[in-house]
Amino acid sequence: MTKKPLYDTRESFNYIGKRGLKRKDGDEKAGGSALFTRDVFFPGMLYAKPFLSPYAHAIIKNLDTTEVENYPGVRYVLRYDDPWWEEHNWTWRAPFYGWGAQYEDLLGQKARFAGEAMGFAVCADSEHICDEALRLAKIEWEVLPFYIDAEEAIAPGAIILEPEVNPDTNLRLDASGGFGPDIMGDVEVGFAESDKIIEFEWSEQEETPAGVEALSAVAVWRSEYLDIWIHNQDPLRNQPELARWFGKYHKIRIHSLYQGAQFGFANWLGYYNMFPIVAGILAQKTGKPVKYMYDQSYWHTRSYEQGVYRIKVGFKNDGTIMACQNESIPSISEFSTKMMQGTKIQHFHGWNKVPYFNRPACVCFRHGMRDCGLMNMIFAKVAGELDMDPTELAKINDGCQGKPMSYIDEHIKKEQGFPNINSLDEVLKTGKEAFDWDNKYHSAGTRVLPNGKYHGVGFSHSVAWSPDPNTYLHQFQIAIKVQRNDGGVRIIGRHADGGWTHETTICQVVADELGAKYDDIEFRPFDETGIDTGPGCGSAGLVNTLPMTVTCARKVKQQMLEMCTSPGSNGCDPLFPGLTPDDLDTKDSTVYEKNNPDNFKTFAEVSSYQWQFYQPFNAFHSSESHLWHVEYMARQATFIEIEVDPETGEIDIGDTVIVNDVGKAINPESINGQQYGGTTMGISHGRNEACVYDPVTGVKLNDNLIDYKWFSFNDYKGPFDCHILESGLGYAPYGAIGCSESLGAVNATTLGYAVYNAIGKWITDFPITPDKVLKALGKI
Q1: Which of 57, 82, 357, 756 is geometrically suited to a Cys-Cys bond with 146, CB 3.0 to 4.6 A?
Q2: DSSP helix, strand, coil percent of the chain (3-state; round to 5)
Q3: Burial degree of 74 (CB within 10 A; 0-12, 13-18, 19+)
Q4: Structural domains in the chain, sorted by start
Q5: Mean pLDDT, the chain, integer
Q6: Of 122, 116, 107, 129, residue with least CA distance to 48
Q7: Which residues lie below 8 Å from residue 621, measured CB to CB, with a gap of 6+?
Q8: pLDDT of 636-690, one tens digit each?
């Protein structure tokens, strides 16, 4: 039996999907008046900075901060042995996300990577005084053995790095599964049914997030009340942690101003909690506002994309992939997401070996690169082995959760009321035509250009991120208020901004659903109101906020129509006597009679008639949502053209075509921005980006944006051609689907097949730098 869709869609759109609207944050950001966390200032404010370990692994045996404390302008020195920790029964540890050392002390006595904030922090009248005073500490160290390479850390005979945690091994996790079980079917059965089996290894290097705004936190105590300004996309995540140490939840207010782009990292890294905690302690100790800051915002984190993957794949001669097996070191495999969500492959087994070793905390940003990379490297290798067009291989194996797309058409799309559209077919049709794929594609290593360079094309694809109505979080809410007398509309709900036009997009939705003018709607999600929308976190922010936004706007609209046909709050006659709510509608910030549009009242008149229209709405929209079986039916793809110079190994990136099925394009300009930026970041990861460590000291050598090589738009020889498709195959209102994080993720390994297609040799150690190309060609 066909289910009713979760949300009734609209017959027409006024602002949704419209280009050229003025961004709600545009004037402030373009004009320079926008306030970021680093801009927060209070009279008498102090500054604080931590000491950074010069060693990859060491313990402070003795710390003398006498000269630091006596330096003019220093107000307080917070040490690892400060009485505050014991007085508060301090037990805080920041777990690393994914892999690396298991936990991190807050200004602890032990350093587990070079550059770690540890030992002590200085609070002073200025940043300069902090910098000068930090150099004056006298420290006696016990320098410990370290491993920068994860495989060395778990090799036989390796020195134990964390004996107090595990005296027997540096292997922290030896198990199947990442965020969920990475086992489906039986790989041995799949291998037995395969015509061919190949085994290969691919690896990625650590990269550093290239942020815009250095990390900071500002703390102000007002009696027993604490105000904190943080640099984070998810302020709600910090609030409970602060409440553990500084008092009850309701006495702590977290403010989220504009955020210089973080690409997700601080949302998930427990280590980040040290910023607001230390700021709060120092503000409490000094009785002054304190800004706690790092000069470099990303030195202490790394991507979790780094890892070595050992892959075994079985497949039929016609391209049907039967089984995939992966052992990853040290990164966590995620077969359980992209490969399982977006293919008909039935047999998987992923195994993770996660060690302790001495690099910074790993972190989720540009999310899913290893996951999409794993999928695309498997597809690339199989296509190369069969000398098959990789776009055809993608179609052969398309499906969801081990089921072919024909099954999804009949049992998901049809039963759940989705349109019978094959997203991958549409994505490939659009992308191949725009790229001229059929004319540019060729077998590997078979086309040399007149300029002597090798020509290659690359293709990558994956599922598009879609919300799951079964997992909407209960704590998220949004409220809409029509202001009394002037009829302006205020959207209420804290949500940190990260530059992804969230405010603008939500205002577009409310304008259409409420029947208001876009210019009459305001959404400034900076301060705590007791209501939190879904956090930024890439695509999740919009699609998880949409359900409550749409439902809330519809409830407010209905409330207005009912009040217009009822006696006023002071007992006066209805604004539309003799009519029912069904006789009315709204548009352009007016309520009007459908059969007589000249009979209307402005929102200002309506709001003056009643006290207020206000409707908070929780994200958990329906008790029946758990009955829905969710599949990821939308797809995305990237096509690139390259030229490889056989004399220098340089790779020139030519035409780039990006196609995203976003379900419904609410803000096309924002989607284009994600397409441009995400693709650039992903290809940069595969072409250039890697952190370099000194093997003798364990110190990162390219911890800056001069020596750290990254791609910009100027590094592309050819144009970007971005395409947006709207299949309606998402579970959010209008069938919307996310696009942002996946763009960078999908393109991280696009060059793998492209370079192979150009030179006929595989390079599976990313990034693919000129020296690796020359080595593959036998030139060095």
Answers
A1: 57
A2: 30, 25, 45
A3: buried
A4: 37-147+212-300 (3.90.1170.50), 403-466+630-776 (3.30.365.10), 470-624 (3.30.365.10)
A5: 87
A6: 122
A7: 6, 469, 472, 547, 548, 551
A8: 999 999 999 999 999 999 999 999 999 999 999 999 998 998 898 889 889 988 8
